[in-house]
Amino acid sequence: MLKIPDHQVAGHTARHGKLGPLIDDSGRFYKPLQDDERGSKEVAFYTSFSSNKRIPDHIRRFFPMFYGTQLLEASDGSGLRPHLVLQDLVSDRHNPSIIDIKIGSRTWYPQASEDYVEKCLQKDKITTSLLLGFRISGLQIYGNNESGFWKPEKKLVLAFTPEDVRLVLRKFVSSNSPTDSNSVPDCSFAPSVYGGSAGILAQLLDLKAWFEDQTIYQFNSCSVLMLYEKESAMKGRSSGAEVKLIDFAHVVEGRGVIDHNFLGGLCSFIKFVSEILTSPDEHSTEACSPDPEKKCIAIENGTTE
Amino acid sequence: MLKIPDHQVAGHTARHGKLGPLIDDSGRFYKPLQDDERGSKEVAFYTSFSSNKRIPDHIRRFFPMFYGTQLLEASDGSGLRPHLVLQDLVSDRHNPSIIDIKIGSRTWYPQASEDYVEKCLQKDKITTSLLLGFRISGLQIYGNNESGFWKPEKKLVLAFTPEDVRLVLRKFVSSNSPTDSNSVPDCSFAPSVYGGSAGILAQLLDLKAWFEDQTIYQFNSCSVLMLYEKESAMKGRSSGAEVKLIDFAHVVEGRGVIDHNFLGGLCSFIKFVSEILTSPDEHSTEACSPDPEKKCIAIENGTTE
User: Fold this and answer.
1) Homologous superfamily of B96-285 in CATH?
2) Separation CA A296–CA A203 (nearest Å)
3) How far apart are CA A254 and CA B296, in angstroms?
4) DSSP B27-41
5) Residues 6 or more apart in contact with residue A2 via CB below 8 angstroms
6) Which EC numbers does the record give (chains A, B) (predicted)?
7) How far away is chain A from the Cα of B226, in angstroms, using its nearest Cα?
8) Domain ranges of chain B
9) Cβ contacts (< 8 Å) between B291 and chain A: which residues?
10) Lowest-confidence range among A61-65, A146-150, B58-62?
């Protein structure tokens, strides 16, 4: 009855007998609790959030539904283990294209140990987190019936440069093949996926307005998940473009301060998305402009000195 | 003809025969160039900024006027030294109350050396930068004719907790004495200084809108300066409330990415200011509420572990 999710793009996976999340046919997602404090912290967040009356409904929709915890046979065969029971965000989706974007130029939190800070800081430096305020953690982009999904492996995704990120965000909303490096992404679905009154950008701006005000939580190391269905968009139907927030193992109390780290990264990501909407036919290589005030954004290992 | 500025609240000072900025009677401020790259980087920024046609006028007003560089006898008697020639922001001010707020939870920049990063990171942790996204670097608050200014020394300012910051931002716009710890700041000038269509908050929001869009510069370790004249406000005249940006020795090219670090910190600061406008009569101690969802924001050494 429980099975391994088809459309997970980041995080631990239950494949190859490892410990990872499972799904069922009723639209639920079972995330195993880690043995360390991460698991209990994520349960604490969902419990607090689901009962918090200060969360407006138009913000609550960005979060997976929470159904409590449940003891289940773990996917690695290690026996019974508590699992978070969440909404499976893609249970009613057909071939969804998905990008997982970890938000924040800093993925560690002030209260963390020196070792943890150092580990995260190094990762923030070698990925785009520090420079862009976010990094792509995983993705799958649907091509067509024959090619299926482009789902680059984790190592490749974490090595993305700022220019790669720009390109991937264009590929995400293009009709041409995501793996064809010779064709320029046409961004033909940008207006219907990123744009419009219910599109990704509008949803991100809703989220931004909340983050400018809310001082309840600090969402360290959380991800924004963007998803939509290309086949549906190709047929002129609704693309089902949706933004969700996931991964709350490092959420801490806001203590009266807004989450400036998340907000800054979110604004940077919003700028990337809105630039695709305003210049959908710009070749990504044009970012390397001879205009001295508009320098090439490709940064060669500039983060790792 | 050149003299030591009366109203400098942060940074190097020319007092006691040290190297620091000087002013003249014509409203110019002479900032000595440091021997290391900071001086030349700040000149480079002002030169680039002053000729950049993509800076709108309503943003340019936040920056000091730049008049080039000039060789001058240095204030420490070490001989001729190049100085930045800038507008003296307080030359036409009478007893200005001033706060210098260094913006950003991170005051270092990705390209910096490991040593420099470590030094800044430690300072960001022990001050409020990491937690609040900004820290107060210096201030002077005018009391009255007899008491003059409250100008706490640097050591005290850098030891401010989040709760101290909240209190100082209230004292800044209060009619009662800034040094009287028994009286609760009345925030009587909040509507005229922070509020209104030309007040501090309106100016900060203007600046924020630009930072959401501009990808020309990253303003690492810059300060927002807030100033106004209490005596003028007391007489019901314009408070002359003004926001300025200063200190550009660590500005780097934006390379197509918004300054998410500055923007996040600016939004956090905006939230602090707007909370004073919406609850001007709230005692600062009320932030320690028994409501479990609204915990005390005083954080005891939580930043230095």
Assistant:
1) Inositol polyphosphate kinase (3.30.470.160)
2) 30
3) 10
4) SEEEEEPPSSHHHHH
5) A22, A23, A24, A30, A72, A73
6) 2.7.1.140, 2.7.1.151
7) 20
8) 15-87, 96-285
9) none
10) A146-150
Minimum-distance CB partner of B261 among A215, A262, A264? A264
Residues 6+ apart with CB under 8 A from B224: B100, B101, B103, B134, B204, B207, B243, B244, B245, B266, B269
Distance separating the N- and C-terminal Cα atoms of chain A? 50
Residue with tokens 């900025």: B21
Q: CA dihedral defined by B123, B128, B131, B132, rounded to 10 degrees? A: -130
How far is residue B220's CA from residue A305's CA, in Å, rounded to a whole number?
A: 18
Helices (H), A148-199: 154-158, 162-171, 190-193
CB A112 within 8 A of CB A154: no
What is the second-level CATH architecture of the domain A96-283?
2-Layer Sandwich (3.30)
- Indicate if the pLDDT at residue A261 is higher than 50: yes
Instruction: Phi first, then psi: give them for residue A199, nearest 5 degrees.
Output: -80, 180
Chain A residue numbers with beta carbons less than 8 Å from the beta carbon of B123 are: none
At A62-110, the pLDDT tens digits run 999 999 999 999 999 999 999 999 999 999 999 999 999 999 999 998 8
Confidence of residue A283 (pLDDT cuts 50, 70, 90): low
Q: How many CB pairs under 8 A join A and B?
A: 113
Helices and strands (H and E) in chain B: how many: 10, 11
Of A52, A105, A114, the CB nearest to B260: A105
Contact yes or no for B305 and A213 at CB 8 A = no
Closest CA to A80 of A19, A12, A5, A17: A19
Nearest CA to CA, how far is B34 from chain A (Å)?
24
Mean pLDDT for the stretch of residues B33-57: 93
Distance CA A139, CA A99 (A): 4
Q: What is the pLDDT of residues B182-239, one digit of tens each?
A: 889 999 999 999 999 999 999 999 999 999 999 999 999 999 999 999 999 999 899 9
> Which residues of chain A have a Cβ shorter than 8 Å from any chain B Cβ?
52, 54, 105-106, 110-111, 113-114, 125, 130-133, 162, 212-213, 215-216, 253, 255-258, 260-265, 267-268, 270-271, 287, 293-297, 299, 302-303, 305
Interface test with B, best of A166, A260, A263 (most B CBs within 10 A): A260
What is the C-alpha radius of gyration for chain A, rounded to an integer number of angstroms?
19
Residue at token pair 């005692």 = B283
Set of chain B residues whose Cβ sits within 8 Å of the Cβ of A260: 105, 132-133, 264-265, 267-268
What's the token pair of residue B228? Answer: 């106004």
Candidates A110, A271, A299; nearest CB to B130: A110
CA dist B45 and B84 (Å) reads: 11
